Amino acid sequence: MNRQILVVEDETPIREMITFVLEQNGFNSVEAKDYEQAFALIKEPYPDLILLDWMLPGGSGIKIAKQLKRNEHTRNIPVIMLTARSDENDKVAGFDAGIDDYVTKPFSPKELIARIKAVIRRVSPTSLEEMIEFQGLSLDPVAHRVGIHGKPLDLGPTEFRLLHFFMTHTERVYSREQLLDNVWGVNVYVEDRTVDVHIRRLRKAITGAGHENFIQTVRGSGYRFSCNVN
Ligand code: CA
To answer: What distance in angstroms lies between residue 68's CA and the mean position of ligand 1's atoms?
Structure first.
């Protein structure tokens, strides 16, 4: 499942260059050209990371960063500031506002991608191409393999994506709608009931040594992946 990155940048050529580079590197991108558009796009499903220009029409990047950090839903979204300024004081102001890193313009595509990957790795250690494992249940995103204690499991593509999403977003309840947006995609129209069907298949597939209990039904809310099986 591709990571979603929000690019907030008012200069069209730079914004287009960034989104091009992101998509070439396996990220999905959403674009905003000013303060207002940025806030219109910062909603569920939240972006995995925000690239934020410093100087923007309608309100500065710093102002946006500060607002994000004040809101409990957006506080943990990593922010990389894009800036033409290399002044130390500006950097300090940015870090005070809670941003995670800086990229100074002009930057190379390679540098930008390296910074993004470093920040994602720092904020969510079980991300990107890394192998994920919970109590013997393992998922390898690169090889597209799932196993229980080394024994390979045969999963359908949807069940694989669902399990990948759960294993990288543990201990939180997701509604059927949120799962549809994150696993099937925002523009795919399927019924909520479809989620239940695939959850059932996934549970069945990972049955063994109690792993099926990792996917918990939260009555009236949705589903949660948790290794705390009590
Ligand atoms: Ca600008």
So the answer is: 19
